[in-house]
Amino acid sequence: MAEHDLVLVVDFGAQYAQLIARRVREARVYSEIVPHTMPVAEMLAREPKAIILSGGPSSVYEEGAPTVDPDIFEAKVPVFGMCYGFQLMAQALGGAVAHTGAREYGRTSVQITAPGVLLGEIPDNHTVWMSHGDSVSAAPEGFDVLAATLVTPVAAFENLDRRLAGVQWHPEVLHTEHGQVVLEHFLHKIAGCRQTWTMVNIVDEQIDRIREQIGEHGHAICGLSGGVDSAVAAAVVQRAIGDRLTCVFVDHGLLRKGEAEQVERDFVAATGVDLHVVDAQKQFLDALAGVADPEEKRKIIGREFIRTFEAAEAEVLKKAMKRDPSVAGAKVAFLVQGTLYPDVVESGGGAGTSNIKSHHNVGGLPDDLEFELVEPLRTLFKDEVRLVGEQLGLPAEIVWRQPFPGPGLGIRIIGEVTAERLELLRDADAIAREELTRAGLDRDIWQMPVVLLADVRSVGVQGDGRTYGHPVVIRPVTSEDAMTADWARLPYDVLERISTRITNEVRDVNRVTLDVTSKPPGTIEWE
Ligand SMILES: Nc1ncnc2c1ncn2[C@@H]1O[C@H](COP(=O)(O)OP(=O)(O)OP(=O)(O)O)[C@@H](O)[C@H]1O
Ligand SMILES: O=c1[nH]c(=O)c2[nH+]cn([C@@H]3O[C@H](COP(=O)(O)O)[C@@H](O)[C@H]3O)c2[nH]1
Ligand SMILES: NC(=O)CC[C@H](N)C(=O)O
Ligand SMILES: [Mg+2]
């Protein structure tokens, strides 16, 4: 039997398919997202224990609306529909879906009329989050209608014989009361999924898998940034292959003030890993000269990272040989990266997702990559990674560190990256971080990029004289997993201190602005 039951989340263009996948995992069942264009036979070949049909922007009765082969409902695999998925199931099985004039967006009160299994043990009247303009006007035959709202008579249904169910609302969003309970009723009670997806299991399995992949004599390099993901990846791999792992930290000149020293000092002290530091500042800056396009920058940085790892190989092996002479003639065939599921999804490597931006470690990798990748966290979300980190006993400063992107300040300078501009941004960023820490807010926010609008100038007055300087943007955000985010409501006095200090202390910056955009529509980083 497979180690874990698999739940496939079929994505119909939902805003938050990732969120559904997360919630399933929070219910201790492993899940993956697949595009609705995947043939049903292919989905079934993966032997899912259950299938979830996501929401989506289309109307099921429209020509060309995304759909799924109705065979999916005949395969004896339990299926759960949410919103669009619910409507799709209704239509496919002989019910009716129409634009009834009822529209519900946001907070909506739902009345449970017959709880069945899906809505059992939940208060009759509770608040859910809706986002629909179409409605199921008649449930298919054999289905019990479980709930209604003032304007939506069929808001949830189930057919226990066929193990099919659905809700009009979005149980995956936090604003929906009892959303997780409803999902768990489907997963555990209706579909009978086993609850095996726990962090302890994941670590043990990954260790076994890595030993198998790397073999008894293989050597690996881990790109280590001081961030959470690579620290956890390194710790997992170290457990698997011990000192056949060497960590390589690349100082690409796009780091924050004091970062290289801090990683060298604190990280080694905390973990005892063998850290090899490469100064590649000139290499990266030369490669980036004259480039302003964000995707181009990302690809260049991705490529230069790999070239740096390749160049470090000889050095790494020399060290290894000192410890163990039998290493002579070996090659480092493996590259460990702290790639997470959202990196893959955003780079368009996820199922049916579009390329938002090429994360340097996924979409930005060069085609002629010689290393075989070892990515033990590739299916995990950040909060899962943090749990794994805690599980492995990594210190809190590492596990709870705010994320910092691999391409670093290179994607926070809007325009060409130059040494002078980096200097400016580094100073402004250091002040912002210092004030945030002083205010005790580090754990309250997800991260706070400081962005230099290098090609923009604005007029200011400083010391009674005219200045013509650059603006910086501060972008504090809150988030659960970086897939969605909101702008953080930092206290005004903290903002004020950041603004005053930056304009006073950083040459050529005469304006500080605050980014008040959520994600979507904005992304966290500006490029
Ligand atoms: N300066 C660096 N030197 C070596 N490897 C790096 C560096 N920056 C990033 N990487 C590699 O790229 C991967 C992805 O970077 P990313 O920033 O997403 O993760 P992280 O830095 O480990 O964690 P966090 O997201 O918390 O910053 C890292 O896990 C690491 O393998
Ligand atoms: O290692 C990385 N390589 C990258 O190329 C990259 N791009 C964005 N990020 C980080 O990912 C999260 C989501 O960022 P966005 O909302 O900007 O897409 C945020 O935490 C970003 O800081 C990156 N991390
Ligand atoms: N969020 C959704 O899945 C919406 C489904 C459909 N587009 C509607 O408006 O009813
Ligand atoms: Mg990082």
TrEMBL record:
Q: The GMPS ATP-PPase domain covers which part of the protein?
A: 197-401
Q: What is this protein called?
A: GMP synthase [glutamine-hydrolyzing]
Function text: Catalyzes the synthesis of GMP from XMP.
Record's catalysed reaction(s): XMP + L-glutamine + ATP + H2O = GMP + L-glutamate + AMP + diphosphate + 2 H(+)
| Keyword DNA-binding attached | no
Q: Show the InterPro entries listed in the entry.
A: Class_I_gatase-like, GATASE, GMP_synth_C, GMP_synth_GATase, GMP_synthase, GMPS_ATP_PPase_dom, NAD/GMP_synthase, Rossmann-like_a/b/a_fold
Enzyme Commission no: 6.3.5.2
Superkingdom, natural source: Bacteria
